[in-house]
Amino acid sequence: MTKVHPKFPNTYEESLCDSKAAVVLTVWRKSLLFNCDGFTVYNSNGNLVFRVDNYMNSPKDNIVLMDASGLPLLSIRRKKLSMGDCWAVYDGETQRDPIFTAKKNVSILTNKRSLAWVSVKKTILYEVEGSYGQRSCKIVDVRRNKKKTAEIKRKDAMVGGGSFGKDVFKLIVEPEMEPRVAMALTIILDKMFRSY
Question: Would you say 188 and 132 are in contact if contact means Cβ atoms under 8 Å apart?
C-alpha cells in the first residue's frame, strides 16, 4: 500500500531550518483527517512537515499550524475590524502578544498589486503582491528594498506538463524567512481570498 507520507522528519528544525538555500514546499489544500478542512505540506523529499486540521463544524477564524507530529507551531486568529480583514499570528497555542499581524489591502488608492500587509505592532515588515487566486504571488520584505522572501506558484505535473489545479501548489521560501511564517501567511491568504 502506498503511503501518503512515507516518513516523518525527527523535528521541524532538522527538516527545514538548517538550509542556506530556498526551501521548496508542496502545499495541498486538504487535511489528511476525514471530515476536516485544512492543509498538508510536504518538503522536496516527500516528508510531511506541516499540517492544519480543522473540523468542518469548528470555528473558521481560529487555526493551528502543526508540525508533522501534531505539535502546535503557530496559532492564527482572525481579528474583527470595521475596515478589512486582519489576522494575528501567535507562537504555539498562546493567544497573547502576537508575533505579527496581516491585514488585507482594501484601499483603492494604494498599490493595486498589493494583497496584504504584514506588520509587528505598527511597523510594516512584508507586503504580499500578486494574485492568490491564480497561485501567483510573492511576499517581499519592505525593509530590504522589496526583496522576495517567499513565493506561491502553481505546481506543474512532472509527466504531461499539466497543472494540479488550485488545491496543490508550491511555496518557495528563501533563507531570510522561516518556513512556518511563510506557511502561516499562505493560510491567511487562503482565508482572505478563497472563494468557497
Answer: no
- Could you tell me which of 29, 74, 27 has the C-alpha nearest to residue 171? 27
Strand partners, 137: 130, 152
* Side-chain half-sphere CA neighbours of 104 within 13 A: 21
**Measured distance CA(165)–CA(45) in Å, rounded:** 21
Classify 130 as helix, strand or coil. Answer: strand
CA dist., res. 139 & res. 94, Å (int): 25
Q: Which domains does the chain have, with CATH numbers?
A: 23-193 (2.40.160.200)
Q: What's the chain's average pLDDT?
A: 82
Q: Which DSSP state fits 163?
A: B
End-to-end Cα, the chain, rounded Å: 33
For residue 138, the Cα-to-chain-centroid distance in whole angstroms is 11
77 three-class SS: strand
127-180 pLDDT, tens digit per residue, is 999 999 889 999 999 999 999 999 999 887 666 666 667 788 999 999 999 999
